[in-house]
Target: D-xylose transporter XylE
Amino acid sequence: MNKEKQKIPRIIYIITASAVIGGFLFGYDTAVVSGTIGALEKNFILPQGFDVTAANWWLGFTVSSALIGCIIGALSGGYVSDKFGRKKAMVLSAILFFVSALGSAFPETGITSLGEQPSSVWAVFVGYRIIGGIGVGLASMLAPMYISEVAPAHIRGRLVSWNQFAIVIGVFISFLVNYQIGKMGDTEWLNTTGWRYMFGAEALPALVYFFMLFRVPESPRWLVLKGKELDSEMIFKRLSPTEDIKLLISNIKKPVTKVGTKRVIDSFQILKIGVFLAIFQQFIGINVVLYYAPEIFKSVGAKGDEALWQSVIVGLANMVFTIIAIEKVDLFGRKPLMLIGALGMTISMGLMGFAFFAGFNGIYILVFMLLYISFFAMSWGPVTWVLIAEIFPNEIRARAMSIAVASMWVSNFLVSQTFPVLDKNPYLAEKFNHGFAYWVYAAVSLVAFLFILKKVPETRGKTLEEMEEFWNKSRT
Model:
């Protein structure tokens, strides 16, 4: 029977829908803080009496503190999921999201009277944001890994890509929630009460995530690695009723017996590919576009409302082209999409840099930015997650994904911190009229194109065990 025509068991869709709620929370948690910056400054920073420089630094730290947790969560996720299982690790991330949502909304609870903001509450708030970041770090590596370990090979790319779409939706919903809450009162109300609703709203999807996870099975591949073959066999029969389950389990077990120095070195070579994929995904500049879009549009003359509206258009393009990737990743393959995306981003970022350099008006900037985000969303956005969930051998997948995803979060931080330097440096601003940074990202995109062309294999249609066999053959 043609695999494309096989009926997919309902449990596969339940598993995917449950796991990608973690992606939604990932997107919501990382973006929701954008609507609370004024309130955080008023409640936590200004009462400290810092000078302007220190106040700006501490506000920046408060806003980005969740990134610390993201790195911790990503690095620890491999150990936690190998030790306790993929399902329990995801349950832990759901609990962390819930605790962070309520704790960030009401950080003074148990310390002082509700509504008061002594300096000690600031530290508690940052602690809750770091807790949420740990949840994000865990979810960012667990969801694609778990889906890849349960999905049939011929639709695995599509299902893993839904996690990226959930992240995009989470970001978009956080903007809508912030906007709707902002309309409920004036600035004073927003600074005293509204910001709490923005953080607290995350508790609801966190609860949904928690309870949905009780409907999904443990990863059968993890069970095989733990010697629980009977449990694994029962789950595989539900997931892949037409497969030869005994043969599948036998193929999973084979690589575990291959140990020694050469195996470690070989695994390191594969790890390097995953880490570079993660690093390139950030250094091509995507979060500069997502984080700084309103400021970029304002810099070329857009008014406040116009800048926000143009940012919404960018967000919609991100969603639409992510759906295209979901539909085409298993048809065209991972490598062609990544190559087309990298080349398209090289051209569009180069044009955006030229538009700034030549002093073109804002409509050109918007068009080139939409081109860039479209190429990213149909390729490097979702497909990077697919590849790093597929390329690693079973016995190192969790730990390797931890390292790769942690590299992604560190790169995210570095790019976000260096863009203002590249953009606002007096010499570069004078010589390139704020276009220099975009030419840097265009150059990185070109290097990423060459990396995919030379180093990354095609994984479309291969089982995870067939990918291991590919690596074994490539070494001989």
User: Anything to note?
Assistant: The CA atoms of residues 18 and 213 lie 6 Å apart. The mean pLDDT is 85.
